Amino acid sequence: MKLWQACVCVMASVAVSGGVHGQAVLPPGDVKAAVKYDAEFFPGAKYDANVKTPDSVLGCEVGSRPATPEEITKVVEAIAGSSPRAKLFEYGRTHEGRPLHLLVISSERNIARLDGIKADAAKLADGMHTSEADASALAKSMPAIAWMAYVIHGDEMSGSDAALAAAYHLAASQDEDTRTLLENVVVVMDPLMNPDGRARCLRGIAENRTVQPSVDDQSIIHAQVWPGGRMNHYLFDMNRDWLFCTQPETQGRVKAAMEWHPHYFVESHEQGSQDTFLFMPPRDPINPNIPANVHKWSVKFADGQAAAFDQHGWRYYTGEWNEEWYPGYSGSWGALRGAIDNLYEQAEIETDAVRRLEGRQETYREAVHKQLVSTMANLRTLSANKNEVLTDFAAGRRASAGAEAPYAKRVFAVVPGKNSSRLRKFTDLMHIQGISMFTSKAVMNTTAKDRLGRTSEVNLPPGTILIPNRQEEGAMLAAMMEFDPHMQDGFLTIERRELLRMGQSKLYDITGWSVPMLFDVDCYEVEMAMPSGLEEYSSPSIPSSSTMASAVAYIAEGADDASVKLAGKLMSKGVKVRVADKIFELEGKKFDRGSVVVTREDNPDFAKAQNEVMSAAKDIGITVVGVGTGLGAGDLPDLGGEHFVLLTTPRIAIAGHGPFDPYSYGEAWFMIDHELGLEAAYLNADEFGAFDLRRYNVLVLPEGAGGWVSEHAGDLKSWVEAGGTLIAIGSTAGGVASDAMGVSGIRKLPDVLTNLDDYQQMVVREWEGVHEDVNSDAVWAQTAPEKVQYPWWIGENSGKVSDEEMKRRDRWRALFMPQGALLAGRTDDRNFL
Q1: From the CB of residue 499, how many other CB atoms can be counted at a distance below 10 Å?
Q2: Which of 80-84, 330-334, 541-545, 691-695 comes out lowest in average pLDDT?
Q3: Strand partners of residue 526
Q4: pTM listed for this prediction
Q5: How many Cα atoms sit within 13 Å of 684 on the Cβ side?
Q6: Which residues pair with 355 in a beta bridge?
């Protein structure tokens, strides 16, 4: 039998048997005939001939193919430059330097008074000071503001092309309905939130383009190559970044959105290619801080969107997998500020078309059409209900920020510590999010609840940062800061039953995010009215460093995150650096373990080293202190002893591609390259066996490659034994923590369930080593004790659980492993980490 005959036979047998492993088989069809989608977007519409069409800029029909980021910029510039209804603003730049735009479209009268509309919007949003009567008057006199944002995930592309079609229609249409809509609504359109990711996705499509249209969604042209186009340059999912604002795109977008105070907030996405179309409202769990008006209007907008889809006979759904628990999504962020949010999830069609399981072929242009119909349906609903929507928006803001708000007398108190860099990052985030903070001048004795839910009497020192929950963005603040938000009781029952019956969670995504916990700031929740006479908080200036003629060393406080960056930067400049592994005190100044030390003896050209230290400290934002003696106080370490370890200049490599998770790789990449400013080699894991690992003394293995670790166990073990430092993350660390690897004493719990006694005694020894007190009478007694009490002994009748029972219990508990929980833990401060 010839090879091609064998292939035909294999394919025929798969088709007859119903697919591989029981999966449905894509039915055959006429590919070329289905790729064309001829439906008109706006049948019979008449347009202002002076406004440039997207087609004239693109050179093709809008929506017939994905427009590039550069083309999208040209289209919105052309519309803004030719229509009196449109105005273009740049609000930021990406890591790769691409512009981020807002295209504002409304009636000519509204465009001429945008500053006044923004001022009215700010007043309407002021739930602390704007009265109900004033809010009612504003609701009648001002237009609603719709924030329409598309494609934060670069490979979910149809929304941007729909935005171009909607923008042109709104800016040029001559029909009366559009004119009325634009009198009632200011459309603030972000046509492409992630241009870097979209560009990467389109490069992948171009590289894998075929002559024939590719309609199998498992084909690489649809599935993309690693890492795909979903994320931004550093592979961050920016639809999780609205809470933390780590990326420049998010920082610019948050600032711009807060200037507009939108009343309606759309985020456009795509989902699995064989899915249909999802929109709001969501299902439980819903963040308890989202105002009630959002839930009310979400149903009303769904009615309008459903009616528009029904006219076309399109299938759709709401809820199901979509919950609204995490406050860092685009729409959830808007909802917590009072906007009615909506989520578009269209079936993903990367290019050409996708053959669906029912036999129909859905084209890219049809996907664009569905996004477009959703946009126009929602804008019409907003226009028709403008006064009531704005009245309810103002009422929701008053409910969150008024004197009767549920958290009107709650204050979050943050006590500054030695980690000045961390505190600055925390307060910078609060400023970005528009949160007001104040500083206490005197000691405050009060009852407070800490991050672990323990209530006690505390003394808050002068300089404590007080953040009242009663403020304009009170709902957003509550969602950010609460230590332990609770889901609805009914949902918890559903969740447990789902875990028991189906073995899977109903939770979609992130469930633990408390900002003070993740920043590890010393934070308390206090029930009190805000004291009078407080000063508004502003980030403190960094005390300057200066050279000291008699210095034997310069020291940077190890409790400050910036000390790590300082050490790396100094070593890259050839400065010899030490780090303390124990608390020490020199000349009356106490320093934590981890402090960075540059000594005169290590650096013969100490004048040059001093200059490098001062320059780096200024650039990084950390204070260095000169000391004239290396003699430590009392029994604390002296500078020449074993507790000041000489660091080796890192030669870092990070493995990526292959099985490694792009998100985890991006986090490591961003941290080392952007945050620490260190050089690194970025290695393709698929070619790992060909690399000379002797060039590196640090190797970072991101999440997702437990099996890959096993394949390369020999090389990795030899490299570690030769002195390399291996940093493995997540499941990859699980692959390293095995007997086969033999590079660590750490093991995964399931692998040692039958041998827990040894590990239990290790934990007991660590705990007792920190807390044990000695009974001197017993030590010097002349008689032996009648009975020895062992710390792991629980009771006379306690027996060891059988190995099989231990495994059974572990399997049961694994069903209920919390998704995204923040855990408190104890660490041994003598451990090298």
Answers
A1: 15
A2: 541-545
A3: 411
A4: 0.92
A5: 5
A6: 361
